Amino acid sequence: MKATSRHVEQELGSYVLGALEPPETVRVEAHLQGCARCRAARDSYQEVADGLMYTLRPQAPPPGMRSQLRRRIQPARPRDTGRPSAYAVLSSVLALGVVALALLTWQVRSSLQRVEGRFAAAQAALEQRAQVDSVSLALLSYPSRQVAMVAGEHAYGTMLYEPRMPMAVLNAWGLPDLEQDQAFQIWLRQPDGTRVSAGVFQRDDSSPFTRVLLEMTESASNYVEMGVTIEPKDGSPAPTGPRVLHCDL
Predict the structure, then answer these.
(1) Residue 205: what are its φ and ψ, rounded to 5°?
(2) Order of strands across the sheet with 182-189?
(3) What is the 3-class SS of 128-169, one letter each residue?
(4) Which of 11, 78, 146, 243 ranks highest by number of CB atoms within 10 Å?
(5) Closest CA to 6 of 82, 87, 89
(6) Do 175 and 210 touch, CB atoms closer than 8 A?
(7) Spatial CA neighbour of 27 closest among 40, 43, 10
(8) Are 169 and 214 a contacting pair, CB within 8 Å?
(9) Which residues are CB-contacts of 208 (< 8 A; sequence separation ≥ 6)?
(10) 226: part of which helix (H) or strand (E)?
C-alpha cells in the first residue's frame, strides 16, 4: 500500500498511547504501512512509552481521560519539512512522561482512597463492636437482667436485656447468606400488635457469631416479642421478608 504524502511524526506520540480518534488512527496506520521512516519513529516512541509505563499496573483509566489527555498533548501541526523536528520529538517524549505521571498519580490516589475506605470501615466496625461489648458487660452487672432464647429454622441465639431499661443485645449464630441488596432487620412487637424497628444489621463474618445492639426508645418491658426478618439493605417500614429469628419477652 502506498503511503500518504504527509508524514505522521506529529501524531505518533498520541498514536502509541491509543489517544487518537478512530479516523486518525486509520490514517496513521495506513501511512505506516508504506513509510519506513515513520515506522522507525513509531518504534522509538513505543520504546519510550513502554519504558515509562513499565512499573504501572494496567488499569482502565476513568471516563473522559483519553480525550482530555489527547487535547493536552497534541501540539499544533507545523508545516511538513520532510523530517521530524527536534521540537516534535521533545514534545512527544514530554507528552509520554506527562501521561505516565498522570496515570501513576491517578492510580496512587485510587489505591490510597481504597486503603482509607477499608481502614475507616474496619475502625467503624471495631468501635461498634466495642460499644456492643460494653453494653453487654453493663447488662450482665444488673441482677434483674433477663436472657431470652432466640430460635429460627436454622439460626439461633440469645437476647440479653434489662426489662426496666431501653437496652438489649442480640447474639445470633447460623444466620443465612444474604444478597448484596439485603440486610437483617430487628422488630419489637408491642402488646397492641404494633411492630417497631430496632435496627438493621449484616452478619459478622469475622466472628463465629453476630452481636447486635438493639435500637430501643422504650424500656424492654414495653415489648412482648422480638423477631428478625430479611429485608432490603436500608430496611423496611414494616416486616416484609422471611423471619429467621424469634423470641417472646
Answers:
(1) -80, -10
(2) 195-201, 182-189, 225-232, 243-248, 146-151, 156-161, 168-173, 210-213
(3) HHHHHHHHHHHHHCCCCCEEEEEECCCCEEEEEECCCCCCEE
(4) 11
(5) 82
(6) yes
(7) 10
(8) yes
(9) 173
(10) strand 225-232
Q: Is the pLDDT of residue 1 over 70?
A: no
From residue 164, how far is each of 67, 144, 167, 188 by CA, in Å?
A: 65, 9, 9, 15
One-letter amino acid at 63 equals P
Bridge partners of 157?
Answer: 150, 172
User: Contact 216/198 with Cβ under 8 angstroms?
Assistant: yes
Would you place residue 65 in the very low, low, confident or very high pLDDT band (cuts 50, 70, 90)? low
CA gap 167, 159 in Å, rounded: 10
* 197 membership: H or E segment, kind and range: strand 195-201
The predicted model scores a pTM of 0.51
Residue 36 and residue 222: Cα distance in Å, rounded? Answer: 88
If you search the block for the grid coordinates 468501635, which residue do you land on? 127
Residues 200, 238 contacting (CB under 8 angstroms): no
Residue with cell 417497631: 196
Cell 482502565 identifies what position? Answer: 60
Question: How much is the average pLDDT of 101-127?
Answer: 69
Collect all residues with Cβ–Cβ distance below 8 Å to 93 and sequence separation of at least 6: 13, 48
Arithmetic mean of pLDDT, 156-170: 90
Instruction: Please give the Cα distance from 71 to 60 (Å, whole number).
Output: 19
Q: Identify which of 40-49, 62-71, 93-102, 234-243 has the greatest average pLDDT.
A: 234-243
Cell representation of residue 151 = 430460635
pLDDT bin (cut points 50, 70, 90) of residue 41 is confident
